[in-house]
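Teaching note: in complex prediction, the entire set of molecules is handled at once rather than each chain in isolation. The prompt given to students was simply: 'Predict the structure of this complex.' The entities are:
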Amino acid sequence: MDPVQKRLVDEIIANWKDKPGALMPVLQEIQEKLGYLPSDAMEEVSRCLNIPLTEIYGVATFYHFFSLKPKGKYKIQVCEGTACYVKGAKRVLEKFEEVLGIKVGEVTPDGKFSIESVRCIGACSHAPAIMVNDQVHGRMNSEKVLQLIKSLK
Amino acid sequence: MAIVRANVLICAGSACVSSRAYEFKDALLKALEEAGIRAEVNVVDTGCVGTCDLGPVAIVYPDGVFYVKLKPEDATTIVNEHLLKGRVVNRLLYQQPMTKEVFPSLSEIDFVARQKRIVLRNMGIINPESIEEYIAREGYEALAKALTMTPEEVIDTVKRSGLRGRGGAGFPTGLKWELARKAKGNPKYVICNGDEGDPGAFMDRSILEGDPHSVIEGMMIAGYAIGASKGFFYVRAEYPLAIKRLELALEQARNYGLIGENILGTDFSFDIELRRGSGAFVCGEETALIASIEGRRGEPRPRPPYPANKGLWDKPTVINNVETLANIAPIILNGADWFSSIGTEKSKGTKVFALAGKVNNTGLIEVPFGTSLREIVFEVGGGIPGGKKFKAAQTGGPSGGCIPAEYLDIPLDYESLKQIGAIVGSGGLIIMDEDTCMVDVARFFLEFTQSESCGKCPPCRVGTRKMLDILERIINGEGEEGDIERLIELGNEVRQDSLCGLGQTAPNPVLSTIRFFRDEYEAHINEKRCPAKSCRALIAYQVIPDKCRACGICARVCPVGAAQGKPREIHFIDKNLCIKCGDCFAKCPFGAIEKVDIFLEKS
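The expected output is the structure of the full assembly:
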């Protein structure tokens, strides 16, 4: 972590330190602010909350929301909920992989895009749906994948 | 307060926001400004109207005209025609997909007219970001009434109403409260389970986004009834809008003294905190959810002891689902007899379903228990798109089962669905048509539960993996005789030997599809054929020469150069290059590409 990140992490810890069950919200806020959980941030959390690092690692790897590696500037999340699946989510995911030349779970070498597959985002009536950062895009198909990537490049 | 002559309610649910409802709103505000009538017209954001696939939608009052699929450029037309001249804009009205009939008002369209709205009573009517509007619709009156009753009387009312938990298991809510009330230990907690993990379900998200105060009020009444002074909301991190609206609602209620010390001048004090999930399906299970709030891996533990006796931080805890809590205020206000007069003998009240998949009207609906699947699919849902045939409905997500066409008239309630191996579940209702392969659907759900299994108990961790391996072989044309029997045997073992609900129900989609669609399994295994022509390993794409007009679109969209052809010559697909993505099939304007069986050599 650089000094700015360290200050952020310390602030987050200080906010929650005395509340019961602080670990989850602390990790969530670090994930949100830094985009991932750097190992030295987890060490800091361990030291300040007095929780063994192994336990923190256990929690961080249990939940999908946490990532130990940075994600792309544009975080593409392809919904693979039921409604999206029966309406062709598999092809949408493939098309992203095809266009970006990376597999699901990977980041492009320039750090611009990452692809993840996620469980239902609740946009079932717009299936197949995806999210880019927090923005939902509905009724996706191969053509719209191409247009979307073009507009972000 | 300024006098306005019209109100425009714009749906600000997640689905409408994702189809750019706010862009329409901005355009509308600008158009009102330009026409010089900004002060005469009130523009309000409201909760999910339910007609999610028609979004963005708006309702113009006092006339109650319902406009659909709005684009920013439609704003000027609505202002100039409707709001200035009083003429309804016909082209923006809803058209029934089968009969093409046009309906000017929301209450008339069959999607809405056939519903009974208790939980969704305020959706599309009030602004979810305004506590005043909630209060104007009898909001927090039930809390005030409950505080004049004894906790035992409140519990008795909920018990007599027949309300059962809406999260899936259907446990009687009043009984749960009574157990927690009688349990020894202090403090006690109420948790609202908003970890809506079933893929294809968005009821709880919509309620939290559209009417957060109704859930808060329900939680406070629960807290009073069991003697708790603290409540937690546990909401999925994937629902940012729901979290934002809930946070705002909590702040407003706190400012009004409705949350805090000595509420409404009584001895009752109650505080509420919001915690977010972190994307683990198993956390919908109550003991796993508790572990997650406590800051641990979300692994379930054996029950008993039940959370009612030993829950959060080992204290007595009631965990209720979002929809369950949203039912509480109307029950307290209108009485147990009123509520129990709705629904069937053992399933009282209404159920909210998230209708999605291959159906014309997708969205959020609320119907009395006992409504038939046929009514939901063909009347509320407006039938199957493209004139295709209904094949099955899937309820209860990865824990549920499917309901085939021969049971279309079955009343939807806890008992009837259980009889045919399906469950009401939390309310996801996915409609499948003839193009959906039921073996692949079973594989999809099992892949989901397999990857979401927390890994604590081997029957679930290993058993689901073994079952998934078999299903993958089958859809790849490598199924063997005896696979169906192996799936049934494994399924029964996983069901019996797993610790929590995830494992105990994980085999349901497989067992249920085998029960009703065994012929599809047999076709995959014995003939290496996918009847729905959906499994890639078992089909090929080819051009129908008589229909091809050599337009070249297939060749343009093909990502691997398999679709080929010279100008003015009939095109063809090179089967050695084809990856069977289906883009050409979807794009051909003449329907000149077909899917055919390829009949693998039998192994």
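Point out the following to students. DSSP finds seven helices and four strands in chain A. The two ends of chain A are 28 Å apart (CA to CA).
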